[in-house]
Amino acid sequence: xxxxxxxIPARFSATTSALRFAAEVNxxxxxxxxxxxxxxxxxxxxxDSEVASRLARFDGVLLPGxxxxxxxxxxxTDTHDTVYDVDEVQDAFDLEVARAALDxxxxxxxxxxxxxVVNVALGGTLEQDMGGPEREHRxxxxxxxxxxxxxLEKATGAQKVEASxxxxxxxxxxxxxxxxxxxxxxxxxEGLELPGTSGWFSAVQWHPEDTAHEDPAQQGLFNALVRAAxxxxxxxxxxxxxxxx
Length: 245
Hints:
nine-stranded mixed beta sheet; PuuD-like; Gamma-glutamyl-gamma-aminobutyrate hydrolase family protein; hydrolase; gamma-glutamyl-gamma-aminobutyrate hydrolase activity; Rossmann fold
């Protein structure tokens, strides 16, 4: 069967030794998790023109982690001194990808920064810095409680998971229409979904790709994305299930 094509916005990298110069990249663990799930991962160039028509050729979308969103994107007038790796081109593209994917009903999985992007794209805000090492969620694996009956629970098959986190920001106000599907013990929003949307969508604040190779609950998120992408393609292309395009 032909693998569903999963679009993953590339991240800018100032230096990449194997390529000698600046590059556009995605985390290998993320790519491998999509591949294990049966998907065909495809990095896409961050250019915020004709985004909807570019995405229409794909079967699903994965919004990955990355640097911080520019605070002005969610109405903040000041910038905390811990905000890092802001890129206006990346921000504009990711925000448009989030809106276009949801508008098109494309299956969408958003990870870490990706969750924040979706929240901001729909009108929510972020807390620019959660505090010092005792409060931030960098280099931490901690338990997350998952809401019963959510798409997140169905994907992971669990009501509690061990989440690999790397973030110093979190959701402040949740965008209208979004529902919280997971929280950390300190109340941090760790999962979101959009009830009533026409396509499958789940967002997590952690990095499931970090442990997906050994944790079926984390791999389950990528499996769920690819299943939804395969089902969506089958609905629009009757010959797809026979591997014909």
